From TrEMBL:
Family: Belongs to the HAK/KUP transporter (TC 2.A.72.3) family.
Record Pfam families: K_trans (PF02705), K_trans_C (PF22776)
Protein source organism: Brassica napus
Domain K+ potassium transporter integral membrane positions: 14-523
Transmembrane segments: 12-32, 52-72, 141-164, 194-219, 231-252, 278-294, 306-326, 346-373, 394-418, 424-443, 455-477, 483-501
Keyword terms: Ion transport, Membrane, Potassium, Potassium transport, Transmembrane, Transmembrane helix, Transport
Biological function: Potassium transporter.
Molecular functions (GO terms): potassium ion transmembrane transporter activity
InterPro entries: K+_transporter, K_trans_C, K_trans_N
Domain K+ potassium transporter C-terminal: 535-590
Protein name: Potassium transporter
């Protein structure tokens, strides 16, 4: 009983912490979903059924894609506690021969964390489909490009999230100039509103305020966020309960019958009445399922599921339902739907909470961007960058200066260039849905080759979730002229950079591999070259895990002398998130490694 109580307490504690990092982006989406969904021709369909249909779409989208697909299936495909695009790819590489990663050897499989405890039996025979991919270089290259495209979408989200989050929260200041507060508002709020009417007479001032907050956010990364990180979770929890309360208030005040929209029948009526305009509105509705960045290295799948199912999901449903109830009676408030639906006495407190929640959500996405860049760099798909562990005793908390300043410049450029939250949101939605679509196409491979389930389950998963997401992706592509082009531009730029860097590293490695020299050859030709042994120890860095690099033979040819003891040092990356400290050093004799490499056994002499 005591152990069970301790486990439950630990899960609850991790669930509490996950609010600050995993769900920030998802939790602030009510700020702009309805505003973006009713952008364009859908504004002419001002009926209660249309509003109920939009809410029904939002509800079932969150339920099917966030609750069922992500929480039930995707979180199961963790890589020793790590999640994400590269975690899925690493799982595939270890269970199949799909990998194009460099410097892999048989000794890697002897690491205790190489295969997880829940991995299926790896001795099962290979299917024809699996062998087809393994023996086709183009298929493996296409798979790597798919992963790199998904990775580029994560980096693009890291650019767009701070822009759309902070700008949407600042929009509340503009909305306040159009609101008439009741006499219940205190005099301070009234005087403050008069002050804002003067300060924000020009919309450019709002952009300047947003840029100032964004600069402060990225500068804070350099100074360190550890001192204020303990505030992230309570801020998001308070925000979620605040918007849920506002939603519940609007349901009872404006339209209690909105609960009927939980029926998918209203989705049918929505598309029947709106036609093409309803399909185009999906580009805004998809913003309700923005990316969930679950840092599973710090939390656990169970804690993330608990937090989402017990708090995040019901709070978001109540908020979206409340907005739908309010808008069904106040169609003219669509441009400022979220802030217009807030009761007057609570407008300014909720506005302040929205700004804080936007900063926390942006912080979480910046962390996720640092993490994905680190994974790309470790696997040879990103230029060399400086990685700082802050704090050193917390696994996964890193800071990359070059990426931080790059994100700041790009985010400020997007904010100043667009100046319209809806255009930034459309670009953001395209990036999020493209990332979800890539994940959906990787999951069937995980189901079939890692979990060893029948191909039928992979096909069913693809048909169910792939069809839904394909409809959303097609709709989001219509938003390219309205801001989505920046997503295409940034993702192509990042994909090109990562693939070219990987291609260059691969060509360099293959050259070294082709020109390496067996130690037997050096020992045999040593006397004829007149090689002299010098007292001491020589350290030679090499990219090869076995054999002697060609640079060493070039050195001996031009200067026929070497130390009595020569140590070849190879720093390599294994596609797993964590290696135990005692297994991080692989020591052996090069001569024995050379003989073993010829037999394809390559067993280590000792592992420390």
């Amino acid at each position: 009983q005591a152990d069970r109580r301790d486990r439950c307490t630990h899960v609850l504690f991790l669930a509490y912490q996950s609010f600050g990092l995993a769900f920030g982006d998802l939790s602030i989406s009510p700020l702009y979903v309805y505003k973006c969904a009713f952008y364009g021709g859908l504004r002419h369909y001002e009926t209660e059924d249309t509003m109920f249909g939009a809410f029904s779409l939002i509800f079932w989208t969150i339920t099917l894609l966030s609750l069922i697909k992500y929480m039930v299936f995707v979180l199961r495909a963790d890589d020793n506690g790590e999640g994400g695009i590269f975690a899925l790819y690493a799982l595939l590489c270890r269970h199949t021969r799909f990998s194009l990663l460099l410097n892999q050897q048989a000794a890697d499989e002897e690491i205790s964390t190489y295969y997880g405890p829940g991995d299926a039996n790896r001795s099962l025979p290979s299917s024809d489909f699996k062998r087809l991919i393994e023996h086709n270089k183009r298929s493996k290259t296409a798979l790597l490009l798919l992963v790199l495209a998904g990775t580029s979408m994560v980096i693009t989200i890291g650019v767009l999230t701070p822009a759309v989050s902070v700008s949407s929260s600042i929009d509340g200041l503009v909305a306040s100039t159009n609101l008439k507060h009741s006499k219940q508002c205190c005099k301070f709020y009234f005087d403050f509103q008069i002050f804002l009417l003067f300060v924000f007479a020009c919309s450019g001032t709002v952009v300047m305020i947003a840029c100032a907050l964004l600069v402060g956010l990225f500068v804070l990364q350099h100074r360190g966020t550890n001192k204020v990180a303990f505030l992230f979770a309570p801020i998001m929890i308070l925000w979620l309960f605040s918007i849920a309360t506002v939603g519940l208030y609007n349901i009872f005040k404006w339209n209690p019958s909105v609960y009927k929209a939980l029926s998918p029948h209203y989705i049918y009526k929505f598309f029947r009445d709106t036609g093409k305009e309803g399909w185009l509105s999906l580009g805004g509705i998809l913003l309700c399922i923005t990316a969930i960045f679950a840092e599973l290295g710090q939390f656990s799948a169970k804690s993330v599921r608990f937090a989402f199912c017990c708090v995040v999901y019901p709070c978001l449903v109540l908020q979206y339902m409340g907005q739908a109830a309010f808008l069904s009676k106040n169609f003219s408030a669509l441009p400022t739907s979220f802030y217009s639906s807030i009761p007057n006495p609570f407008f300014w407190p909720v506005l302040m909470m929205a700004m804080l929640a936007a900063m926390v959500a942006s912080q979480a996405v910046i962390f996720a961007t640092f993490s994905i860049v680190k994974q790309c760099y470790a696997l040879g798909c990103f230029p060399r960058v400086k990685i700082v562990h802050k704090p050193r005793w917390v696994l996964g908390q890193i800071y990359i200066p070059e990426i931080n300043w790059l994100l700041m410049v790009l985010t400020l450029t997007v904010t100043i260039g667009f100046r319209d939250t809806r255009h930034i949101a459309f670009a953001f939605g395209l990036a999020c849905m493209s990332l979800a679509f890539v994940t959906t196409w990787l999951m069937p491979l995980i189901i079939n080759f890692v979990w060893n389930r029948h191909l039928v389950f992979s096909i069913l998963f693809t048909i169910l979730f792939g069809t839904i997401e394909l409809v959303f992706v097609a709709s989001s592509w219509t938003k390219i002229p309205h801001g989505g082009w920046i997503t295409i531009l940034l993702s192509l730029l990042f994909t090109f950079t990562t693939y070219v860097w990987h291609y260059g590293n691969r060509r360099k490695y293959l050259y070294d591999q082709h020109n390496k020299v067996p130690m037997n050859t050096i020992l045999t030709r040593g006397p004829s070259l007149g090689i002299v042994k010098v007292p001491g120890i020589g350290l030679i860095y090499t990219e090869l895990a076995s054999g002697v690099p060609a640079t060493f033979t070039h050195f001996l040819t031009n200067l026929p002398a070497f130390y009595q003891v020569v140590v070849f040092i190879c720093s390599k990356t294994v596609p797993i998130p964590y290696i135990p400290q005692k297994e991080r050093y692989l020591i052996g004799r090069v001569l024995e490694y050379t003989r073993q490499a010829q037999d394809n056994t390559n067993k280590p002499i000792s592992m420390l």
